Amino acid sequence: MKTLGKKIRLLRHQKGWSQEDVAKRLDISIPAFSKIETGITDINLSRLEQIANLFDMSVVSLLTFNDAEYEQKYQSELENVNKKLMDRETEVIDLQKKVIELFEELRQSKATA
């Protein structure tokens, strides 16, 4: 059941929902939902149907949801985000260099004045 809980957590993150959001929608406590996600609690069929409906899926789709498919789907998006992050890091380094250069110029101009 741990893999089912992992799938549910992955779907919850995909929707941008907190555990509290899902627990409220399922009309259960947050700790009860947390136990579902961690695999501590086995899920009965009615709860499974309720969770599947929450994610607009059939029970079969929920049970067969594949993490690898999810990863493939978002791999290019992740690569784009990483590239943007690297570009931003380069910009920050360039700006830091410029600040240092300006500081040195300012210090030299004060020393000669």
UniProtKB/TrEMBL annotation:
State any single GO MF term. Answer: DNA binding
Any Pfam family from its record, for instance, is HTH_31
The record's section on InterPro entries has: Cro/C1-type_HTH, Lambda_DNA-bd_dom_sf
Q: Which CDD domains match?
A: HTH_XRE (cd00093)
> Where in this chain does the record put each HTH cro/C1-type domain?
8-62
Q: Which SMART domains match?
A: HTH_XRE (SM00530)
Q: Which residues form a coiled coil?
A: 71-98
Alphabetically sorted, this entry's keywords are: Coiled coil, DNA-binding
Q: What is this protein called?
A: Helix-turn-helix transcriptional regulator
